[in-house]
Amino acid sequence: MDLLLLDLGNTRLKWGVFSDAQHGMDPQAHGAMLLESIETLAEELRARGATALRTAIGCAVAGSVAALRVEAQLALLGLRCHWIHALPQQCGVRNGYTLPGTLGADRWAALIGARRRHPLGAALVISVGTAVTIDCLADDGRFLGGVILPGFGLMLRALEMGTAGLKVPEGEFREFPNTTSDALMTGGALAIAGAARQMHERLGRLQRSTPRVLLSGGAAPKLELALGLAHESVEHLVFEGLLAIAAERGLRAAA
C-alpha cells in the first residue's frame, strides 16, 4: 500500500506517492497543480496509477478553504489527510519559535527533512516559492529562526504596481543586465541571495563552522546562479520531512 504526501502551498498543490517497500527519497509518482485545479486531484491520481493509496499526510499554508477542497477530493478516493502542524519538538528538531505553533507547517516539514538528510552539522534551509524562507538549523537540531521575503513573482508584481512601464516579459539572471526584463530578474535574485548570504554568515559565526545550504522550492532554479553559496538542491525536501513525520506517527515504516 502507498502513502500520499501533499504540500498545499500559496500557489500550487504538490503531491507525491511513496511505497513502504521503496528505498530513497524520490516519489514513485509526483505532480503539481495550481490551486484553481484542485478539483482535478482525484482524477489525476487515478490517471497516474495511484490506486493503492492507504492514507495521506500533508502540510497546508493556503488556508482552510483550500484544505477542505483537497479533503473533498481525497474522500472520492476513500482517503483522509493527516495535516501536520509545527510542534515544540519532533523528529530530532526543536522549534525555536516564540509561539511554536505559528511556524508554517511547510517550513517545519522542510526543517525536519533537512535534519533527516543531514543529522549532524548546522544547515541553512532555503525554500523559494511564492514567498522565500531562509531558516537556520543548529548542529544540535535547534531551529534558531529565519526570515521571510517575497518570491520572484511578488517582487515583480510589486514593481509593476508601483511604477509605470514595467510590464515586461520575464527575464534572465545576467552578470550585467542590459534589458529591463533581465534587470528585474537579476535584481530579485540578488536581493534574495543577499539575505541568504547574511543568514549563512550569522549561522556560521554562531556555530563556528560552515553550515550546509539546502535549496528547495519550485522557483529554486532561478536563484542558483545568484546564490553565491555552495549548496545542495533538494527537489522534495518538504516530502522528506513528511515521510519522517509519517514514520513517527506509524503511518509508514521507518526508512
Can you give keywords for this protein?
single chain; 255 residues; alpha/beta; Nucleotidyltransferase, domain 5; 2 domains; seven-stranded mixed sheet; five-stranded mixed sheet; 7 helices; 12 strands; globular
- Domain count: the total is 2
Tell me, briefly, the overall form: globular
Compute the CA-based radius of gyration.
19 Å
CATH homologous superfamily caption of the largest domain: ATPase, nucleotide binding domain
Q: Helix fraction?
A: 25-40%
Strand content: 25-35%
Q: Topology, please?
A:
Layout: E1 2-8, E2 12-19, E3 29-34, H1 41-47, E4 53-60, H2 64-76, E5 81-83, E6 89-90, E7 93-95, H3 105-117, E8 123-128, E9 131-137, E10 142-150, H4 152-162, H5 180-207, E11 212-216, H6 221-227, E12 232-233, H7 237-248
Parallel strand pairs: 1-4, 4-5, 7-10, 8-11, 11-12
Antiparallel strand pairs: 1-2, 2-3, 6-7, 8-9, 9-10
Structure description:
The chain is an alpha/beta fold and 255 residues long. It folds into 2 domains: 2-83, 2-Layer Sandwich (Nucleotidyltransferase, domain 5); 89-240, ATPase, nucleotide binding domain (Nucleotidyltransferase, domain 5, 2-Layer Sandwich), CATH 3.30.420.40. It is 36% helix and 26% strand. The protein has helices spanning 41-47, 64-76, 105-117, 152-162, 180-207, 221-227, 237-248, and strands spanning 2-8, 12-19, 29-34, 53-60, 81-83, 89-90, 93-95, 123-128, 131-137, 142-150, 212-216, 232-233. It has a 7-stranded mixed beta sheet, sandwiched between helices. The chain has a 5-stranded mixed beta sheet with strand order 3-2-1-4-5, with helices on both faces. A hairpin with a 3-residue loop joins strand 1 (2-8) and strand 2. Helix 3 crosses helix 7 and helix 5 (180-207) packs across helix 6. The radius of gyration is 19 Å and the shape is globular. The model has no long low-confidence stretch (mean pLDDT 93).
